[in-house]
Structure formats: C-alpha cells, structure tokens
Design brief:
Blueprint: H1 4-16, E1 24-30, E2 37-42, E3 45-51, H2 59-73, H3 80-90, H4 93-106, H5 121-133, E4 141-144, E5 154-157, E6 162-165, H6 176-191, E7 195-197, E8 200-202, H7 206-212, H8 218-226
Parallel strand pairs: 1-3, 4-6
Antiparallel strand pairs: 2-3, 5-6, 7-8
C-alpha cells in the first residue's frame, strides 16, 4: 500500500521532471531535533527523511515540502507559492511552540563557561543590564563558544535560554567595548523576540535596530566587525 506522503512525492516528481522515469521514492519520518527535511538520490532510488513533527500534516503542506525538496534535488527554482505555503505553516504559533519544545528536549547544546581568559561574560552582562536595561533583565546561561568562530560571532538560543559569544573576542587585543557590543546585541534578542508576520520572520525589528544604535560605540563596532 502506497503511503500518502509517497504518493505526493511521486506526483510532484512527475510535475517537476515529466520526462524523467519515476524512480523508487521512499518517504520516512524521523525524530530530528528540529523541523529538518532531507532528500538524497541513491542510484535509481530517492530517499526522503522528514521531521516526525510533519507526520499527519495536511496534504498541501506535504506537497509544498515535496516541491521544495525535489526542486533542490534537481537544482531547479523553487516555485514561490510552495515556498510561501511552507513558510506560513512554519510560522503558525502552534507549530513554532511544538518546534521550540522539541529543540529543547532533543537538541544537544554545547555550553561552556562564562569565564574566559581575558573577559568574564557574567560581569559584562550585569554591567550592561544596569546601564541599558535598568537591571531588570533575567540573566540567561552565558558561555564562550567552543572554537573562535569568525562566522558566528554571537547568538541567542531561545530553546536553551543561552547566549553564546565567539571565543575569538577573548583576547588581550580586543577592546572591552567590542565585547560589550556583541553581548548588548544578543541581549536585545531577549528583549525583542523574533516576530512572525505571515510567511516572514523578522529577526531585527525596527525597535530592535533603533535601540541597537543607542550603544555608544555602535558605528565603531560595526566597522570593526567588518574586518572579521
């Protein structure tokens, strides 16, 4: 008996590649730590692994995912209506809440210590908390990153309530105000959570950007970070 998910992927494959012989398509649902979807081509077989969060999803949602994955597999443009449909689904409050719980329960998050060789993140957080937030912001878990990343300079993980700062800044040549700015930026993510507007995610709202510019070394920090 053919599963509904497989039927949808077979139909979409015929639409995307009408002249290509239909390969065997296997669709399975896996307990990923996030809403991840993977498609692989192995000889005459296509293997699709979907997040188990999507099991039982409405057929139009699975159809959108099928168009996205098969288009990517064959390096074709993703039809905008299916990309929008899937984004709208992901931005539903119930879906976001369920994904948040799954990331917290299943996700593995490496978290180190706030004390670096040259800077202590807890001291920096509390100083900024008093200066810019009236001391009213609850302190999340703070940690230096495992490696000195130049691509991910800092991030706030809302699933684990943690701020991680790249260890590349824990150096004697780094000015304190630059570390302050990185921390301040991530603290603003605590104050201004991601907004969901239809199919769009707004990570840096107008309020976020306006308050970010209140940092005394804002322009200097932005220029400094461009060199990284």
């Amino acid at each position: 008996m053919t599963s509904p998910g497989r039927e949808i992927f077979e139909r979409v494959h015929k639409a995307v590649r009408p002249r290509t012989p239909l390969p065997e398509i296997v669709v399975s649902f896996r307990p990923y730590a996030d809403i991840n979807n993977v498609i692989r081509r192995r000889a005459d077989r296509i293997e699709v692994s979907l997040s188990d969060m999507l099991e039982g999803s409405p057929p139009p949602v699975l159809e959108a995912i099928a168009y996205i994955l098969i288009s990517k597999l064959y390096r074709k443009p993703i039809p905008e209506k299916f990309a929008t449909r899937y984004r709208l689904f992901l931005n539903r409050r119930s879906v976001r809440q369920q994904a948040h719980v799954i990331r917290r329960v299943r996700g593995r998050k490496w978290i180190g210590e706030p004390a670096g060789v040259h800077f202590h993140l807890e001291e920096i957080f509390e100083d900024l908390n008093l200066r810019f937030f009236g001391g009213m912001m609850a302190r999340p878990t703070l940690s230096w990153s495992r490696s000195p990343s130049r691509t991910l300079l800092g991030h706030f993980d809302d699933s684990h309530n943690a701020i991680i700062i790249s260890r590349i800044f824990d150096r004697p040549a780094t000015p304190r105000w630059l570390v302050d700015y990185i921390m301040y930026h991530e603290m603003l993510h605590l104050k201004f959570p991601v907004e969901h507007r239809g199919s769009r995610r707004c990570v840096h709202s107008a309020e976020f950007r306006a308050e970010e510019k209140l940092f005394p070394h804002f322009e200097q920090a932005k220029q400094q970070l461009k060199h990284l």
